[in-house]
Every structure is written in structure tokens, then in C-alpha cells.
Specification:
heterotrimer; A mainly alpha (272); B alpha/beta (264); C mainly alpha (277); A: 272 residues; globular; B: 264 residues; alpha/beta; 36% helix
Chain lengths: 272, 264, 277
């Protein structure tokens, strides 16, 4: 408290105030991380909750070290990665143009409106068993499930982006007699890029859901399969390890899109 | 020969807005006849909502469903008949200043390299050299309006349409920009149709000030401004200038009153 | 020599040609889109262009539905799914709202929980199913837990955001009148947060519904999700799609209901924006 007020009142020596001080956010974030892990460990060691349900941080760490060092986890990561990348990229490649088209052409939008509303309200998970029936239990079905989970947020967000451009900018383009294509390039596309990227970021999460659903339904490899298998033989620590891996993937992919978002935001004044 | 040496000729221009949902009709412009000789600087002043911006949009081709006739001189196949300088925030925020200024040329299918080269002299003319790689948010309001002006000049229009371009600027910047505009106008030799609600701005800049009535818009008066050029800002404090301002103010005041209770 | 350029009458905005469909706008096109797709599906299936075994056809789905509603087990499934949804969603509200408000109000608590919330939010929560099943056994509770986990974060996160973005000025006004911290919370923070909470509730509905389906697909002995699973195991695609359709309608109705609620709690908001300066 006192040191802080002194620091505020003493600007003559700028280099000393520029000294690195951990932010409150970081300190408490670490604290929260450690406290939760400790409580978890304690509850497990004291036997307050059965180990087979709760496992414990050290057990999970042991399982992780074991399955990483003996290479068990790699084929699973590779299988999930393949499904993920193919499904998500397909969702992007199809979803963005479809979203742009629906946003640009009013009549197409009206035509598809009831179907979009219906898909919006349907938990697409429910369609996964049908996809397995149609496409079999191979890679195609899993990629398609990932695709289906991810595409909708991308389409909807892209559509919203097309309408996000201020009418004012359309006027300016019109006053310079911009062609339809020029108007698309100079007004619609730049205004919708942030929305497309938001859709993509949400899509990374949905795609991960798709991977696990597909692997829960029918597979003999992948992180979802690893989780399911170890659950069935009561290897709870490995179940949690699989979930930690999903979490790392999820956070990393989300951050990756965030980095791209920032790159496309150069023309905006920096906030914060 | 139809424009008869005029940069702009409008005959019986009339415009009615129709509310798309209620189908209510609102006559924005009742009847406008207007001729602007080449090279003249003409301002239109009038109370808010009198339809002056509507008229400008009609000339600019943004409102195609008008009645009457509008003709704009076009001598060359290249170059535009007209270009618009919009109010504030009219630069594309996602393009650099250079890309913004070159925009009109790009719209005519000119490749970006050539368009950029041709935009540079105009960036220099408005005094923005060194800022061409910046994004609009990195520039002050006054500088943004310079870029806005350069963008319109780049397409080499016969007539420059300006829609309250300095309305969003603070008082001092606005004065400076008025003087700058006159300097650029003298250099670029363009016909200008300038919309404003600031009487002193109109007088200071123009060869002629047209006064418009409250809605439905008509032209009430056509006042020649015989003040000598080049004009300096201090001309605004001369008796001749204030007399003109009083004269126009007298014309506008009765037009404002009836609108006051309706405005809010 | 001067050439006058006259403006071509260009179409801007609304199209000039307006046929029957355009005059009916959204509704007309929507109807054509819906009916057209169903017709193509039905006729394509009857003509053999669409594999009926895989994709079924609209009339077959309706027929399957008619048969299904006469089976007592179907109504057991409906009751069960509904119960799971209501309990899971209700628990998510009961936990999510207070946790969100408290976490938003105490800055350090928020900092402490941030990494965990972030982590949980980026994983598919139903991946915990194997552990949940170990803990609760196969049955209603495993599904309820999945629905709860799906919805609770969707409620917590917007609520935290709502508390954190309360307008400083209102807090200043309240403290200048000497409002105590509990009063500040009750009179300023809570009302200002309501719109955020409600949008969390809306997101939560969808998540809870997805949770019910997922839970029942993988870890249940009954419920509509389980019915879909049974239909898929016996390759009855018409029955399967009937099950999906029920969830679609449930989703539409629930989302609409919350939208109404949303409009209601926001009545005090002026429609006009950005007036105050």
C-alpha cells in the first residue's frame, strides 16, 4: 500500500518505476491455479472422494509422463489431429463463401431462412449417428461430423459480417461508381473480416466437440477414444490426461486465431 | 452543347421521399433551377433538413429517382463528371491514406500501381505527404478531411461536390481548413458546389451563395459575393463581409423558426 | 465542345422488378425454400435419386412419428429427457448466477478463477462422461451432470462480464450518496447485469439441450437421445430423424421463449442509442 503510493508520487526516476512488477491478474491467476490443484490433491489423498472418480493431480501427471514417454499417446493425437484439421478446414472453405453468398443475396437469405433457423435450434450432435450410418465408421464420417459441428457458427458469423458494413461506406463506393466487385472488395469484405475470424475462433471449439463426438461414437483411435477406453477400464487419471490434452489444444487453437485477428486489426485504433 | 458552358445545369429538380413501410410521402425538394458556370465556387446554405444534402446526393447520382433534369458538363472521356467530399468518417478505415486517395481511380479499373502514382501529387497538394501509409484513425479530423478532398480531386472531376465537409471539426481547425480549401481550389481550378449551414463559411469561400428554404426545399435567393480574392481569414471581420452575413441571416431566420418545435 | 452527361437511372437498394415473391419478401421466399426442399427430398427419394435407406424421406419420417407417439416407451423417453433438461438447466442457473455475480464482484476471485474458467470453456465438457458415469452410474444423473456442465459456463461467463462492465458513473452516483457495498451491489450491479445474465440463460438453453442429447447418446438407458441411438443401431433412419426433429422443435420453442423474456427484462432500455454524452 505505502510502497505503491510512493511509487505514484515519485516520478523523477522513471527507470525505477519501469521495473517489472507482476500484475495482480497474474499473481492471483497462479494462486488460483495452485490452490485448486492443492485442494484437489488433498481431497484425493484424504480419501474424501473416491480416487477412481476424482483421481488427483499427481496421478494425472504420472499417467501423462508414462503415456508420453512410452509413446502411447502420439497415434491418438495424430488421429484426432487429422480429423480436426480436415474437418475444420473444410468448414472454413465451405462456410465462408456460403456465409458471404447468403449475406450478399437477399433472396438466397430468405430462401434458406427456415433451414438456418432449424439448424440453429438443432443440437447437431443428434445427427452424428445418422452420419455414421451413411458414411461408415472410417475417417470420412469423423471428418464430416467435425465439419458439421464447426460450419454453422462460421456461416452465421460471416453472414452477420456482410451486413456489418456501415451504409455510409456503400454510399461512398456508389459515388465513385464502384463496380459490384469493387464494392465487395473495398466495403463488404474488409468489414466482414473480423466477423469471419470470430466465426473461425468459435469454430475451433466446435470442431473439437465434433472430434470427441465422432470418436465416442465409432473409432479405434484418437483422444476421444483414449478417454473412452481408459474410462471403461477405470483408468481415471488417463481420462483426465486426455481432457487436459483437449484443453491445451482448445486454448492453443483459440489463441492462434486471436493472433490472426490482431494481425487483421491493424487499421483499428488499439483499445486497452 | 446542352450545358451551354455551364458546369452544372439543373431544371425543375424535385424529390420526394417515400417511407418504405408507411408509404408516407415527404417532399424534400420542391423545385430547384440552377446553373453554375465553370470554375465557380457556389455554396448552398439553409436550415437543417431543408434538403440541401438531398440535392447534392441527386447531383452525385446517389438518389436516382428524382424528377426534373440535371446535366453535368463532361469534356473529356477520361475524368469524372463529379466527385463528392463527404462529411466526417468518410475514409475507409481499413485502407491506408494512399489507398483511400487512389480509391476513385481503382473504381475505374486502373491498376493499383498506376492509381497510387497518380494519387501522390494530390496527397502533396493537400499537404499530407509523409502520411500516405497511415491508417485514417492515426490522423486528426482535419487531416482526414484533407485526404477526403484529395480522394475527390484524384478522379479529376468537372465539379466537386462537398457535403458539409468541415462540420465535425473544431472551430479553429475549421477556419484553417477553409483557407486551405481556397488555396487548393485556386491551384486545382475546379467548379465547386459546397453545402454548409455555416453562413460565414459560405460567404468566405464562395463566388455565389444560394439560400434554401425550409422543407420542402426551394431556392430563396442567389447572392453574389464580390469580395476580392485571394481572401484571407481576416476578411471575415470586415464590414462588407458582416453585411452579407446579416443579409443571409435575415433570409434564413424565418425559415428556422417553424421547425424549432418539430425538431425535438 | 461540351458533352453533357445525363445520369442513367440506376437501381440502388430495392430492385425495380418486383414479382409475386418479392412482394411477399422473407415469408414468401422462406415458404418456397422450405416446401421446395421438402419436395425435392420426397420426390428424389421416391424416384430413387436419393437413397431412402440412408436419408429417409419427409413422409416416412412423419409416418414413423405417428407410429412412435402411440408407443408408451416414447412418452417415457420424453418425460425423462424433459426432467433431465429441467433439472440440469435449473441447477446451472442456481449455481451459475450466484457464482457469476460473486466472481465478477470480487476482482481477485475472478483473477484466481480465470485460468480454470478458460480451460473448462475450451474443452468439450461431455468428454468427462466416462468419469461422470463412474461417479453416478448409467442413468439420469449422468445426463443431468452433462447438461449442467454444458449450461453452467454459458451462464457464468456473461454474468461476470456484466458485473465487470457496470458503468462507473452509476457506481460513483451510488457511492456519493453513501451507499454501502451490499446496497451498491443490490441497486446498481445486479440490475445492470440482468441483460448479460439473460443472454447467458439463452446460450445456456442450447448448451443444456446439447448436453441432454450427448449424455443420452453415450451414457443413458432411456430418453430421446437414447431413442436416436436405438434407431441408429437398428438402422431406422426415419425414426432417427423423427427424434432429431423433436430436438429441433424443442430448441426453437425454448430459444423463442427466452427471447421473449429477454425483450421483457430490457424494457427499461431506450431504443435510441448513444444519446448521453
Amino acid at each position: 500500500m505505502t510502497t505503491e503510493s510512493v511509487a505514484h508520487r515519485a516520478p523523477p526516476n522513471p527507470p525505477s518505476t519501469a521495473r517489472w512488477r507482476p500484475s495482480e491478474r497474474l499473481v492471483f491467476g497462479l494462486l488460483g491455479f495452485v490452490v485448486v490443484l492443492s485442494v484437489w490433491e488433498a481431497v484425493s489423498v484424504l480419501g474424501l472422494v473416491k480416487k477412481v472418480v476424482l483421481s488427483s493431480p499427481t496421478l494425472i501427471l504420472n499417467a501423462a509422463i508414462k503415456d508420453i514417454s512410452n509413446g502411447v499417446i502420439w497415434p491418438h493425437l495424430q488421429a484426432s489431429g487429422t480429423e480436426y484439421v480436415l474437418g475444420f478446414l473444410a468448414a472454413l472453405v465451405v462456410g465462408v463463401p456460403v456465409g458471404l453468398a447468403i449475406g450478399l443475396f437477399r433472396r438466397l437469405n430468405y430462401l434458406l431462412d427456415p433451414w438456418l433457423s432449424a439448424i440453429y435450434a438443432t443440437p447437431t450432435v443428434a445427427l452424428a449417428p445418422l452420419i455414421i450410418i451413411i458414411l461408415g465408421i472410417g475417417l470420412e464420417a469423423k471428418v464430416f461430423i467435425v465439419f458439421l459441428e464447426a460450419i454453422f457458427v462460421i456461416v452465421v458469423s460471416t453472414m452477420a459480417g456482410v451486413h456489418a458494413a456501415d451504409a455510409h461506406f456503400h454510399d461512398i463506393a456508389e459515388s465513385f461508381r464502384a463496380s459490384r466487385w469493387m464494392r465487395f472488395r473495398s466495403v463488404v469484405l474488409p468489414a466482414s473480416v473480423p466477423y469471419i475470424l470470430t466465426g473461425a475462433r468459435l469454430g475451433t471449439g466446435r470442431a473439437l466437440v465434433g472430434v470427441v463426438i465422432a470418436e465416442f461414437l465409432a473409432s479405434n483411435g484418437g483422444i476421444g477414444f483414449y478417454i473412452l477406453l481408459n474410462g471403461s477400464i477405470l483408468q481415471t487419471a488417463r481420462v483426465y490426461f486426455g481432457i487436459v490434452l483437449l484443453g491445451i489444444l482448445g486454448v492453443a487453437l483459440g489463441e492462434f486465431v486471436r493472433v490472426i485477428e490482431r494481425r487483421f486489426d491493424r487499421w483499428r485504433p488499439a483499445i486497452r | 452543347m446542352t450545358t451551354g458552358g455551364m458546369a452544372l445545369r439543373a431544371r425543375g429538380v424535385q424529390f420526394t421521399y417515400i417511407d418504405p413501410t408507411t408509404h408516407d410521402r415527404l417532399v424534400a425538394i420542391e423545385h430547384i433551377d440552377l446553373e453554375i458556370p465553370e470554375g465557380q465556387f457556389v455554396s448552398i446554405v439553409g436550415p437543417s433538413g431543408c434538403g440541401k444534402s438531398t440535392f447534392l446526393k441527386i447531383v452525385n447520382g446517389l438518389l436516382p429517382d428524382y424528377q426534373g433534369e440535371i446535366e453535368v458538363l463532361q469534356r473529356r472521356s477520361e475524368g469524372s463528371a463529379h466527385a463528392m467530399v463527404f462529411q466526417d468518417a468518410a475514409l475507409f478505415p481499413w485502407f491506408s491514406i494512399l489507398a483511400n486517395v487512389a480509391y476513385g481511380l481503382r473504381c475505374r479499373g486502373i491498376p493499383s500501381k498506376v492509381a497510387n502514382e497518380r494519387a501522390m501529387p494530390f496527397i502533396r497538394m493537400v499537404g499530407l505527404e509523409g502520411f500516405e501509409a497511415k491508417y485514417p484513425y492515426q490522423l486528426s479530423g482535419g487531416m482526414q478531411q484533407r485526404a477526403n478532398l484529395a480522394r475527390a480531386l484524384t478522379v479529376d472531376p468537372e465539379i466537386l461536390l462537398m457535403d458539409e465537409p468541415f462540420a465535425a471539426l473544431d472551430a479553429q481547425t475549421r477556419e484553417l481548413m477553409q483557407a486551405e480549401l481556397l488555396r487548393i481550389w485556386a491551384e486545382a481550378r475546379k467548379t465547386v458546389l459546397f453545402i454548409t449551414h455555416q453562413i460565414d463559411e459560405a460567404i468566405y469561400l464562395s463566388d455565389r451563395v444560394l439560400v434554401m428554404s425550409a422543407r420542402p426545399g426551394r431556392l430563396l435567393a442567389d447572392i453574389p459575393i464580390d469580395l476580392p480574392r485571394p481572401r484571407e481569414l481576416r476578411i471575415k471581420r470586415t464590414p462588407g463581409f458582416t453585411a452579407l452575413a446579416d443579409q443571409i441571416w435575415e433570409l434564413i431566420t424565418p425559415q428556422i423558426r417553424p421547425d424549432v418545435p418539430a425538431a425535438d | 465542345m461540351s458533352i453533357a452527361s445525363r445520369y442513367p437511372r440506376r437501381r440502388t437498394g430495392e430492385p425495380g422488378r418486383r414479382g409475386w415473391l418479392d412482394r411477399r419478401g422473407r415469408l414468401g421466399y422462406g415458404l418456397v425454400g422450405a416446401v421446395g426442399f421438402l419436395l425435392v427430398w420426397e420426390l428424389g427419394s421416391r424416384a430413387g435419386a436419393i437413397n431412402e435407406f440412408f436419408f429417409s424421406r419427409p413422409t416416412a419420417i412423419v409416418a414413423a412419428g405417428m407410429v412412435e407417439v402411440q408407443v408408451p416407451r416414447f412418452w417415457d423417453d420424453v418425460r425423462r429427457s424433459l426432467t433431465e433438461f429441467l433439472v440440469g438447466y435449473g441447477l446451472a442457473i442456481a449455481v451459475g448466477v450466484p457464482v457469476g455475480l460473486l466472481t465478477g464482484w470480487f476482482r481477485r476471485l475472478q483473477y484466481s478463477l480465470d485460468p480454470w474458467l478458460n480451460f473448462l470453456n475450451s474443452i468439450p465438457r461431455f468428454a468427462l462422461l466416462p468419469v461422470i458415469v463412474i461417479a453416478t452410474g448409467l442413468g439420469m444423473w449422468s445426463v443431468i451432470v452433462v447438461a449442467f456442465l454444458g449450461a453452467v459456463l454459458a451462464i457464468i461467463i456473461p454474468t461476470i462480464q456484466g458485473v465487470r462492465t457496470v458503468d462507473r458513473r452509476f457506481l460513483d452516483v451510488a457511492s456519493s450518496f453513501g451507499a454501502s457495498r451490499p446496497r451498491l451491489f443490490a441497486t446498481v450491479v445486479a440490475p445492470a447485469t440482468v441483460p448479460f445474465m439473460v443472454s447467458g440463460l439463452r446460450l445456456g438453453i442450447g448448451r443444456a439441450l446439447i448436453g441432454v442429447v450427448t449424455g443420452e447418446l453415450f451414457a443413458a438407458t432411456g430418453g430421446l437421445g437414447h431413442m436416436i441411438k436405438r434407431a441408429s443401431d437398428t438402422l431406422q433412419t426415419d425414426k432417427l430423424l423423427f427424434g432429431v426433429l423433436i430436438f429441433t422443435f424443442a430448441g426453437i420453442i425454448l430459444v423463442e421463449a427466452v427471447r421473449r423474456l429477454e425483450a421483457r427484462v430490457q424494457r427499461w432500455r431506450p431504443v435510441r442509442q448513444g444519446a448521453a454524452a
